[in-house]
Amino acid sequence: MPRLSIESSSATHVRLDGRELTYFGGCGYLGLAHHPRVVAAFADGARRFGLSAGASRETTGNCVVYDQLELDLARRLGQPAALLTPEGYTANFVAAQALARERQVALIDERSHPSLFDAARAAQLATHAFPHGGLDVLERQLREHGARAVVMLDGVFPTRGEIAPLRQLAQLTAEHGAALLVDDCHGTGVVGERGRGALEHHNVRDDHVVLTSTLSKALGCYGGFVAGPQALIDAARAHSQAYIGTTPAPPAAACAALEALKLAFDDGALLEQLRQNSAQLRVGFHALGLPTPGEDVPVFAFALDSAETMRGLHERLRERGIFAPYVHYLGSPSAGNFRIVVNAVHTRDHIAELLSGLAEALDRSLA
């Protein structure tokens, strides 16, 4: 399919080819990228700092908003310390380079985001995959490598609707003296009682666990971060070239993220609305015979019998004014799949409109 170019957007709609469509894509789970307070904070930050920090934070590129954002992230996520990175992809490089000072081997769930594999190899860690969910294989690998190892995986596997078994993994890695790195880009702000992510979901607070994540999904901003023990953060700040040698995200983006954190975590209203919307879509998907995520994740992924059938469904939904992404992306089946996302700002009517459109389009596509 041709690459799409969005002409304008809100949290619930996009303009494509001159038409406004109700949008069920992306990763803006809390709808914060368009929230007036977040946009205003970005504009104020741009007026105060301009568009770029212009240099590494360890030379002349540091700003007080970066320092404040690191403190706020650590406090709100229940972590000892945090370090900002240019984006989520880079966060894994920063963490891996810090861990490589004491570890020599990376053991990575085969379904994890490619950035974990790239980061481990760039840090010159000997890299081995283990089968998705294969804790028996991982245990054998840990018996071989022990304290030389760091286990890496996603906290949430969004298109599979799974939250990683982090309690078991934390216990297993602790038993063997290994570290555990959790990339929680799709969990931060979304899962856990207060939205703190997959670690909160499993009540994991072990001091050998390192968290990486992004500011660009549920928080609707830009940048990434590493969080965990103060010693690990200090090592990353002092020794990671992926941190030291890069320009940080724009200061205005950090100003926006400070406001987004308040909206995401102060009262829990957006998270509650997201879960209500996910529940409504789950019920509707079940009635249509479509698969639903196994956990409370707002990503509803499915594939039909052929690429031709899926293209037809996608186009029929667009005819009705609904954009439900049919994508070919990392980890997708060869024919692609639908990746439908509900967010906290969708209304009940938006979701009902999607379900009605799906019912009609599926009848026509499968006839």
Q: What report would you give on this structure?
A:
The protein has 367 residues and is α/β, with parallel strands linked by helices. It folds into two domains: 8-29 and 268-366, Aspartate Aminotransferase, domain 1; 36-265, Type I PLP-dependent aspartate aminotransferase-like (Major domain) (Aspartate Aminotransferase, domain 2, 3-Layer(aba) Sandwich). It is 42% helix and 18% strand. The chain has 13 helices and 16 strands. The protein has helices at 36-49, 64-77, 88-99, 114-122, 135-145, 166-175, 198-201, 230-239, 241-244, 251-265, 269-288, 307-319, 348-366; strands at residues 8-9, 13-16, 19-23, 81-85, 105-109, 126-130, 149-154, 156-157, 162-163, 179-183, 209-214, 224-228, 299-302, 322-323, 326-327, 337-341. The strands form four sheets. The chain has a seven-stranded mixed β-sheet, sandwiched between helices. Strands 1-2-3-14 form a four-stranded mixed β-sheet. A hairpin with a 4-residue loop joins strand 8 (156-157) and strand 9 (162-163). Helix 1 runs antiparallel to helix 10. 49% of the residues are buried. The mean pLDDT is 95.
